[in-house]
Amino acid sequence: MQLIVEKYGEINMQNLTRKLLMTSLMVGGAFSVGCSTAPQDLTIAETTQNAVQMRADIAAQQEPVTGEITLYEAMARALKNNLDHRVAMLEIDLASKDYDLSRYDLLPQVVANGSYYGRDNQPGASSVSLLSGQQSLEPSTSTERDVFASDLSATWNVLDFGLAKIRSEQLANETLIYEERRRKAIIEIMEDVHSAYYRAVSSERLNQKLEQLEETVKAAFLQSRAQFASRRTAPMPALSYQRELNDIQAQAQRLSRDLQASRMELAALMGLSADQDFTLQAPAQMTSPVQLTMDYAQMIETALINRPEMRESLYAQRIGDAEIKSAVLEALPSIEGFGGLNVNSNDFLFNQNWVDYGARASWNLLKVFSTPARKRKAKAGAELERQKGLATAMAVMTQVGVARVRYEGLMEAYQTANDGALVQSDILEQVEALSRASNASRQTLVREQMNGILSEARRDNIQAELAEAFAHIYTALGYDPYMADIRGDEEISIVAESLETLWTKRAKMPGQ
Questions:
Q1: How far apart are CA 202 and CA 461, in angstroms?
Q2: How confident is the model at residue 7 (pLDDT cuts 50, 70, 90)?
Q3: SS (H, E, C) 125-147
Q4: Within a domain: residue 280?
Q5: Taking the model in full, what pTM does it have?
Q6: How far, in Å, CA of 175 to CA of 171, rounded?
Q7: Are 511 and 293 in contact (CB under 8 A)?
Q8: Is residue 316 part of a domain?
Q9: What confidence tier does 14 reach under pLDDT thresholds 50, 70, 90?
Q10: Which of 15, 337, 351, 491 has a CA-to-CA distance to 167 between 20 and 30 Å?
Q11: What is the DSSP letter of 106?
């Protein structure tokens, strides 16, 4: 080294300092630009614009309401427009795209590289003998100052291929899991629509009667208070009457609130905005519910085959079994083949383009030692999924039993409530006739009017519960709430017609 310095002089420190300074400035500038970003709060304009846009997007996705909404149109709107269902559809779409991308991992890796290298002076070097310590070669170069290089290489790893194939199969099963979750979401939405629809129909039917009753009760209450204040009636009977009127008014208001909430629930299920105005078509009274046609053992077997939760559990067990295979495969040696085409602009090279190829093998010995632990973990995960499947099966069997018992119990309760409503209707007719003949007090008339509305509401409530229980039978069995000819993107009228055909058939033979 001393000989080289003596021959070529000392290094120009000034020039070197200038180059170091320029390099430092470039690195510092890049660093300051990279660190200059900071989180920015949302502005009022952004949030306002987002709110307006979201309302517009929701409204644009709806088919306009052109007439009275039947039960089947409500189901069709929920199937097509419900936002929870759309989220489930998008989850399936995302999972399927992950699966599509995973198949590219099975292919060889093909990489194209391009590079440029330059410097402000000539690259070169000299040699010093290891024996004598004397310089044995004049400074020389074998590389140009500016060099362009590119290559196209392909590699294929057998171990990575096997692992990628297992992962692709797992993603395929994950896609099917999301499909089962979509089925479950639809089934539960249809069940909720049944319940909310009948409650909302009751709301429309009883709302006018409740308003008239509240006006009557309010007028009677004010009249009684005026009589009490003027001492034209006995104090205790008047106060007792006022208390009873106040209780009746409170019941009417509470019932009205509950019924109004059912309309908002139904609107949300159909994907309509809360302020959307719509009218429901009242169905015929369910005066004669029919017995289930399938026995308990058949229902259990059907549910264990069809329920989305059971099918999801089987797919999860597939994923767990594949994880065991992956743990074993990772312990094997990795064999990789490669080949590539190379091009270089360096004129000092004898061959400026060439093809290289070869193979290499590697073995991660640490993974060999950790394989038993990873297998135990994978087997534990697979066993966990199997136990979850058993727990799910027990829950499904319980739900089937509860759904059956509830449906049969509600059939009896509906018949009792319907008989009670008929009796109360006859009582009200008698009281109204007596009131017109001045043989019944106004207090008695108001009381019986309220009892009439309450009996109707009680019957309608049980009817809604019976409709929900009827739909829950098919939820427990895992049957799809729509026929195979429905994709979900058809017009509302087409979907509703298909649903009506299916559910009318089911109503004749529930449980089949």
A1: 8
A2: very low
A3: EEEECCCCCCEEEEEECCCCCEE
A4: yes
A5: 0.72
A6: 6
A7: yes
A8: yes
A9: low
A10: 337
A11: G
Give Dmax over CA atoms of the chain in angstroms: 140
Q: Is residue 163 part of a domain?
A: yes
Angle formed by the axes of helices 158-229 and 83-102, to 10°?
170
**Dist. CA 254–CA 268, nearest whole Å:** 22
Q: Is residue 124 part of a domain?
A: no
pLDDT tens readout for residues 121-147: 888 888 888 888 888 778 888 888 889
390 by DSSP, 3-state: which?
A: helix
Start-to-end CA distance of the chain, whole Å, equals 96
- CA distances, 411 to each of 201, 260, 288 (Å): 20, 26, 8
The separation between CA 31 and the C-alpha centre of its own chain, rounded to angstroms, equals 41
396: domain CATH number is 1.20.1600.10
Count of domains forming the chain = 1
* Cα(410)–Cα(418) distance, integer angstroms: 12
| Residues forming a β-bridge with 152 | 112, 341
Are 152 and 110 in contact by the 8 Å Cβ rule? The answer is yes
Edge-first strand order for the sheet with 109-118 is 109-118, 146-157, 334-344, 353-362
Q: Which helix (H) or strand (E) holds 98?
A: helix 83-102
State the residue range of the domain holding 150: 45-116+143-508
pLDDT digits (tens, 9 = 90+) for 352-380: 999 999 999 988 888 888 888 888 988 99
Q: What's at 90, amino acid-wise?
A: L
Q: What is the mean pLDDT of the chain?
A: 81
CA atoms of 281 and 70, how far apart (whole Å): 5
Report the C-alpha gap between 263 and 440 in whole angstroms.
Answer: 37
Q: Is 280 helix (H, G, I), strand (E, B) or coil?
A: strand
Amino acid making up residue 488:
G
Closest CA relative to residue 196, chosen from 248, 258, 131: 258
Beta bridge mates, 154: 110, 339
- In the three-class reduction of DSSP (H, G, I as helix; E, B as strand; rest coil), residue 118 is classed as strand
Question: In Å, how far are 75, 88, 206, 486 from 79, measured between CA atoms?
Answer: 6, 12, 28, 10
